[in-house]
Design a protein that fits this description.
Keywords: Acyltransferase, Cytoplasm, Transferase. Belongs to the L/F-transferase family. Its EC number is 2.3.2.6. Helix content is 30%, strand content 23%. The protein contains 7 helices and 11 strands. A 7-stranded mixed β-sheet has the order 6-7-8-9-10-5-11, sandwiched between helices. Strands 1-2-4-3 form a 4-stranded mixed β-sheet.
Length: 237
C-alpha cells in the first residue's frame, strides 16, 4: 500500500486505471477528497471510491469488471411469474436520501457508505447526476431500492437493498428495460456476485470496460428526465 500514490485534495487527478494493483484487485490510489469534481473525474475514468470509516479514501478499478448490458438482462421463469403478478411498482428519484441510508443500514456485513459518502452522493443527486430507483409493494411501502450515477450513456450502480423477496430482481428488470429505451449502453456493477450474474451481468476485462466507457460517457442519453415509463408488458412477454 505504501507504493500507491497519495492524492492531494488540492490537485485534481488520478493515475491511469490500468496501473491498479492486482492484489488487492483494483486498488489504485489513496487520499484526495469526495468533491463532486473528483468523483466525476473518477467515474469517467473507470474508478470509484470504496473504504471504511477507519481508512483513508481508497480508489479502485478492478480487473475484470462486472457489467450488465441492458439488452442482456436475464429473466428466469420464476421471476417472469413474479413480474406477471405485478406486485411491485418501480419509480426513480422519489426519496434519494432514504434509499442511500437504507443501502447503508440494511447490510448485515457492514457498509462502506459512510456519512461522508452519503453527503457526497446526495450532493451529486442535487446536481442531477446521482439517482435513486425505488420499488414499492401494493400497500405503497418501500420494498427495495438502489442508487447510482448516470453519465452519458453509462449507469454506474453503487448499492442496492431488498426488503421483500424478489424486489431487487424486479427492480433490475425495470431498470435495465428503461436504460435500454433511453439508449444506455452499459450498467457498471463494479464487482461480480451470484445475484448479479444470475440477472445477466458478466465480467469483462478492464481494458474492454474502459473502451466502452470512452465511447459512451460523453454521448447524451435519450431521456428528458428520470421518470420511469417502462412497465412489465404482461404474460405474453
Amino acid at each position: 500500500m505504501t507504493s500507491l500514490p497519495w492524492l492531494d485534495p488540492d490537485q485534481l487527478w488520478f493515475p491511469p486505471a490500468d496501473e491498479a494493483l492486482d492484489d488487492p484487485d483494483g486498488l489504485l490510489a489513496l487520499g484526495g477528497d469526495l468533491s463532486s469534481e473528483r468523483l466525476l473525474l473518477a467515474y469517467r475514468n473507470g474508478i470509484f471510491p470504496w473504504f471504511s470509516d477507519d481508512q483513508p479514501i481508497l480508489w479502485w478499478s478492478p480487473n475484470p469488471r462486472c457489467v450488465l448490458f441492458p439488452n442482456e438482462i436475464h429473466i428466469s421463469r420464476s421471476l417472469r411469474r413474479t413480474l406477471n403478478q405485478r406486485r411491485f411498482e418501480v419509480t426513480a428519484d422519489q426519496c434519494f436520501s432514504r434509499i442511500i441510508r437504507l443501502c447503508a443500514n440494511t447490510r448485515a456485513e457492514g457498509t462502506w457508505i459512510t456519512d461522508d459518502m452519503v453527503t457526497a452522493y446526495t450532493r451529486l443527486h442535487r446536481q442531477g447526476i446521482a439517482h435513486s430507483i425505488e420499488i414499492w409493494n401494493q400497500q405503497g411501502e418501500l420494498a427495495g431500492g438502489m442508487y447510482g450515477l448516470a453519465l452519458g450513456r453509462c449507469f454506474f450502480g453503487e448499492s442496492m437493498f431488498s426488503l421483500e423477496t424478489n424486489a431487487s430482481k424486479v427492480l433490475m428488470v425495470h431498470l435495465a428495460n428503461q436504460l435500454a429505451v433511453w439508449g444506455y449502453q452499459m450498467m457498471d456493477c463494479q464487482v461480480e456476485s451470484s445475484h448479479l450474474l444470475s440477472m445477466g451481468a458478466r465480467a469483462i476485462p478492464r481494458a474492454e470496460f474502459l473502451s466502452i466507457l470512452r465511447a459512451c460517457v460523453d454521448r447524451k442519453a435519450d431521456q428528458p428526465d428520470w421518470t420511469f415509463t417502462c412497465r412489465w408488458p404482461g404474460p405474453e412477454a
